[in-house]
Structure formats: structure tokens, C-alpha cells
Amino acid sequence: MTETPKFRRQAPDARKKDLVEATIRCLEKKGSDGLSVRSISSEAGISVGLINHHYPSKDDLIADAYEKLATDILQNVVDIVAETDGSPREKMSAFFKAYFSSIVLDQKFLRIWIVFWHMSDKSEQVRLSHDKTNAGFRHQIELMLRDLVKSSETPEFNYRLAAIGLSGMLDGLWLEWCLNPDVFSPEEGLKLCEGWVDGLMAGAFKL
């Protein structure tokens, strides 16, 4: 027998945070089947009417969930890099190590991202969250690449294109590993990215 959710009063920001986190949990558990407002309201322990009060549409809620998950994951990686002492090259290595750890490399995220990617093609709100968070990821990579050039004899290159290339490589490796972890190990993924950056620093890519 399904229990009736126990509602509690909360400030609007706290309520929206709960709704976003409940949405992420629903997508993690059920994939696209977790997209219903009823599923999310049950997970959050509030009424469907309260969701409609805080979000004018389900797409707005999904967009906020997309942005929160992507931002939180990136921030966890950035925090590890910030805590790393050493040269810009060593910080880049710390970035890769964090990326190929369970912070990012977790199959439970795949079900969530598949829903997000599908909706980004159909929803303006979700697409904007996708564009914003992807731009933030590329920007972080570009900042690290600029620091590499400043601290070494690395030849100048097109930072924007290099960031696009490296972020695309990271995304592709993440997706491939989530689909089949037997294809390569996290250590091998790390080695591929380290080699890519070493090649860039040696002038192997004319960007």
C-alpha cells in the first residue's frame, strides 16, 4: 500500500532544492519512467500541486536538475584540483584523476544523462541548461590549458578548439566506459588524456 506523502512547510528555495534532488533520484532509479510529476512528487514527499506552484512546467524542473547535477560534478572535480599543490601540469593530472574516479565515472549517471540528452533536443529550457553547463566545463579546461602555456615552453595554440577537443574526448571516454566498463580501465582512460596533453604541449596538434 502506497503511503501518503507527509508534507512540511519549507522556504521556496529549500523546496525547489528538494524537488531538484528528488528529480535526480527518480531519473537515477527509473530513467525516463521517472519523469512523471507524480513520481517526482512522491519521491519529494509533496503534492503535485506544490510542484506546479514552484515550477511553471516540468521542463523547467528538469532543466534545473540538469544544471545542478552537472555543476555539482564539475565543482567536485575543481575542488580536488584546487587542493592539489604543484605545477599547472600536475593540476591537469589531478583533474584527469578526479574525472576518472567514481566522482564522474559512475554508471548510475548514464540513465540520468540519457534522459537529459533526449530532452535537450525537445525542450528549450533543458537545451539552455545543457549549453550553459557544457560551456562551463570547456571554460574550466581552457583555463587549465592557458596556465600550462604560461608555465612552460608550450607553443601557443587555439585554446577554444583545444578545450573543445579535450572535453569531447573526455565525454566520449565517459560514455564508452559507462556503456561497457570492460572496453578500457579508468587508468587507461587517464593515460589517453595525459598523452593527448603531452602531445599538445609538444606541438603535435596545429590548432
UniProtKB/TrEMBL annotation:
GO terms for molecular function: DNA-binding transcription factor activity; transcription cis-regulatory region binding. The keyword Ribonucleoprotein does not apply. It comes from the Bacteria. Gene3D superfamilies: Tetracycline Repressor, domain 2. Residues 36-55 bind DNA. Keywords: DNA-binding, Repressor, Transcription, Transcription regulation. PROSITE patterns: HTH_TETR_2 (PS50977). Pfam families: TetR_C_6, TetR_N. InterPro entries: BetI_C (IPR039538), Homeodomain-like_sf (IPR009057), HTH-type_TetR-like_transc_reg (IPR050109), HTH_TetR (IPR001647), Tet_transcr_reg_TetR-rel_C_sf (IPR036271). Residues 13-73 form the HTH tetR-type domain. This is TetR family transcriptional regulator. The lineage of its organism: Bacteria, Pseudomonadati, Pseudomonadota, Alphaproteobacteria, Rhodospirillales.
